[in-house]
Structures are given as structure tokens and as C-alpha cells.
């Protein structure tokens, strides 16, 4: 993601002294690092709670006379709201840079996407105790990762739930352990409520294109058997 983003920023004439608006809820810091490599300053903004992608309203609020570009990341396979972002970019003479997060080793085929979407539909119809991913109106979700939310008191509930799932043989992972704006290299004194909430609640469940119905049902059975939230000490 970093190389492509840096090239797009350079092509747009972004340089020292400019500001570039970027999301903080992403799996790597590569976009922010790409901004830094141009000499520009990354400005972190909040996400939309449904898509988990950069929030156009937050982008509009963050635009200043120094803003030169916006980086919009397709997150976990869900497209950002490019229509709204294109309007903001046009109104403010900004470059709109698009990227995919996490980076993909190869572009999935239409068959692979269709299989993942079918698997996501199966999980979404049967999982309880977690908030399954939604698709924003007019958007497309290719489910490069199947990210649910474990609501409650945030990180302790989610981490306890993850440990219990792993004990039942379900591979799961925290997709964004730390938002980029809280990493030491980019530490910024700002509060992004939806970003913080997502970082404490999100959990990626296994979803691969060739998973059988039995494998999917095993995930459902393991998750639903937990009965929802668990105490932090579990």
C-alpha cells in the first residue's frame, strides 16, 4: 500500500508543508508513512461506524488551507464512500488517493469474491452475541476479512471472547490492535471516538473462499456457544 500511495501523492504534487487527511483505523501505518515520505503531514480523522472506512463528514471538518489530499482506504474489502469523498475533493481542489487495506497479494477473482460473500452471508445469518459486518448503502463488500464487533466494555470483552474462540479451535485475530494515531511514530493528541470503539471491539473471524459449509458451521457453533460477552478474566 505504501509504494502506490506515495506514488499517487507525488503525482498529485503533494510535498513539504502540505497536509494529507488519512484514516487511523487501518491495519498498517503505510499510508501515513507514505505521506511522511513526501514531506507532508498526516492528519488523522475518524471512521464511519458501519463501513469502518474513513468518514466523509470527518474529512470535510478536517480540511484547511494546507490540505492537499485525502487517502481513502478500502478496508477489509469494504469500499470507502468515494462518491462523497470525490465531492469534498472537488469542492476543495484536493487529490483523492485510493488504496486497499490490508494490501492484497493478488487481486481476487470474481469466483473467489462470490464464495467469500456467500460465506459472509451464511455467518451473518447465524452468528449471535456479536455484531456482524454491515454493508453501507450503495457500497460493495468483498470480505477480504470477516470482521465482527464484540460489544460491551471494549477491549477486555473482545480479548476474552477471542481467547475463548481460540480455545475452541477457531483462528481469529484482532485486525487493528492500535490505531495509527496512537503509534509512537505518529502519536497525536486527539480523540477519535469511532476509531477507538472499533479498535476495542473488532475481531476478524476466518473466512476463506474455499471454506466448506461444515467449517463455517464450526465457527458459528463455537461463537454462539459462548453466549455473547465473557468476563475479562475468562
Automatic annotation (TrEMBL):
<dbReference type="InterPro" id="IPR015424">
    <property type="entry name" value="PyrdxlP-dep_Trfase"/>
</dbReference>
<protein>
    <submittedName>
        <fullName>DegT/DnrJ/EryC1/StrS family aminotransferase</fullName>
    </submittedName>
</protein>
<dbReference type="InterPro" id="IPR015421">
    <property type="entry name" value="PyrdxlP-dep_Trfase_major"/>
</dbReference>
<keyword id="KW-0032">Aminotransferase</keyword>
<dbReference type="InterPro" id="IPR000653">
    <property type="entry name" value="DegT/StrS_aminotransferase"/>
</dbReference>
<dbReference type="InterPro" id="IPR015422">
    <property type="entry name" value="PyrdxlP-dep_Trfase_small"/>
</dbReference>
<keyword id="KW-0808">Transferase</keyword>
<dbReference type="Pfam" id="PF01041">
    <property type="entry name" value="DegT_DnrJ_EryC1"/>
</dbReference>
<dbReference type="GO" id="GO:0008483">
    <property type="term" value="F:transaminase activity"/>
</dbReference>
Amino acid at each position: 500500500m505504501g509504494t502506490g500511495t506515495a506514488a499517487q501523492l507525488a503525482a498529485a504534487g503533494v510535498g513539504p508543508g502540505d497536509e494529507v487527511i488519512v484514516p487511523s483505523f487501518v491495519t498498517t501505518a503505510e499510508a501515513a508513512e507514505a505521506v511522511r515520505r513526501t514531506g507532508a503531514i498526516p492528519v488523522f480523522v475518524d471512521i464511519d461506524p458501519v463501513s469502518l472506512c474513513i468518514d466523509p463528514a470527518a474529512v470535510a471538518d478536517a480540511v484547511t488551507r494546507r490540505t492537499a489530499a485525502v487517502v481513502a482506504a478500502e478496508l477489509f474489502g469494504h469500499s470507502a464512500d468515494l462518491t462523497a469523498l470525490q465531492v469534498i475533493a472537488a469542492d476543495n481542489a484536493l487529490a483523492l488517493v485510493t488504496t486497499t487495506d490490508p494490501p492484497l497479494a493478488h487481486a481476487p477473482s470474481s469466483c473467489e469474491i462470490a464464495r467469500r460473500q456467500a460465506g459472509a452471508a451464511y455467518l451473518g445469518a447465524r452468528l449471535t452475541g456479536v455484531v456482524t459486518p454491515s454493508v453501507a448503502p450503495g457500497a460493495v463488500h468483498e470480505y477480504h476479512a470477516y470482521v465482527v464487533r464484540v460489544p460491551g466494555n471494549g477491549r477486555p470483552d473482545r480479548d476474552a471472547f477471542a481467547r475463548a474462540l481460540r480455545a475452541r479451535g477457531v483462528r481469529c485475530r484482532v485486525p487493528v490492535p492500535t490505531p495509527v494515531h496512537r503509534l509512537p511514530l505518529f502519536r497525536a493528541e486527539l480523540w477519535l471516538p469511532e476509531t477507538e470503539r472499533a479498535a476495542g471491539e473488532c475481531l476478524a473471524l476466518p473466512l476463506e473462499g474455499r471454506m466448506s459449509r461444515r467449517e463455517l458451521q464450526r465457527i458459528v457453533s463455537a461463537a454462539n456457544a459462548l453466549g455473547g460477552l465473557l468476563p475479562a478474566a475468562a
